[in-house]
Write a structure and sequence with these properties.
There is one protein chain. By secondary structure, this protein is mainly α. It is built from 12 helices and no strands. Helix 1 runs parallel beside helix 6, helix 6 packs antiparallel against helix 7 and helix 7 packs across helix 8. The C terminus is likely disordered.
């Protein structure tokens, strides 16, 4: 494989790195809550619902400048529906989330069935176009992320009911438009899962470092190897999370290690 060192263009990789950091800023703390609630696939469901809203808007001929509003409206509608099902059938929330994801995904396929560029639309929605973002595109996402972080800080990280789902939907709306569905899921779950068992600021710091290393490393490798950026970042993010387990503080805090230590102590 030929290495493309010329691909290391800061004019392209710079905005992409900033986009990743903006996504991580909200997804790391939200990922912790998602793991605690046991609703792992909520971001995929809301992202697909938001994507279905955009596909429907395009199908109906809505002006391109209105797609962002349509994206947010669909995501918030999905969040409202999930907040209602969480109150009505809390024990069935995870399978309901999975059902909504499948319905939204297949609904998009049906709407794009007669579109000659349907495959490309779906690819952009899933994988994203992180290398093509500009600093100007990042300003609204950065402002929204700052506002969401401010609300989380004021609430002391305690989010419940409709507030949790609404904040989640807005964060997903901003992120999917920048990096695509796959990277949104990886950014939310992988750093949180890698630092499961850690507590307080140490966990947040470790999760942010894992996420940042995954994005930067993935972007560099994708540029040098001339491979799709979104897919490469997902793999590097997962690899970074695995490597982090070699750090004693991270390894000792992991639930599996803690359980083994408790068994050993009991036996002793």
């Amino acid at each position: 494989m030929t290495l493309n060192w010329e691909g290391l263009d800061i004019g392209i990789l710079g905005p992409a790195c900033v986009a990743g950091l903006i996504v991580l800023s909200t997804h790391v703390p939200l990922g912790k809550q998602v793991l605690n609630r046991g609703i792992i696939f909520i971001d995929l469901a809301i992202a697909q619902i938001a994507g279905l809203g955009v596909i429907l808007a395009q199908y109906l001929g809505v002006d391109e400048h209105g797609l962002g509003v349509q994206f947010a409206a669909a995501a918030l509608a999905g969040a409202g529906l999930l907040a209602w099902t969480d109150r009505r059938w809390p024990q069935q929330q995870e399978p309901l989330i999975g059902t909504l994801f499948v319905l939204a995904a297949t609904g998009g396929l049906l709407l794009l069935a007669d579109n000659p560029q349907g495959g490309e639309h779906l690819k952009d929605l899933l994988v994203g176009q992180i290398l093509w973002v500009s600093y100007a595109q990042l300003i609204p996402a950065a402002i929204l992320s700052a506002l969401l972080l401010g609300v989380m800080w004021l609430r002391g990280g305690r989010l419940a009911g409709l507030l949790f789902y609404a904040l989640f939907a807005l964060a997903i709306t901003a992120s999917v438009q920048l990096v695509g569905v796959y990277l949104v899921f990886a950014s939310l779950i992988v750093p949180a899962l890698a630092t499961a068992g850690m507590q307080g600021r140490a966990r947040l710091l470790a999760a942010y470092l894992i996420g940042a290393a995954g994005y930067i490393g993935g972007l560099v490798l994708s540029a040098v190897l001339d491979l799709p950026s979104g897919a490469m970042i997902v793999w590097v993010l997962a690899g970074t999370a695995l490597l982090a387990q070699a750090i004693p503080a991270v390894r000792r805090a992991h639930p599996a290690q803690a359980a083994d230590a408790a068994v050993f102590d009991a036996a002793a």
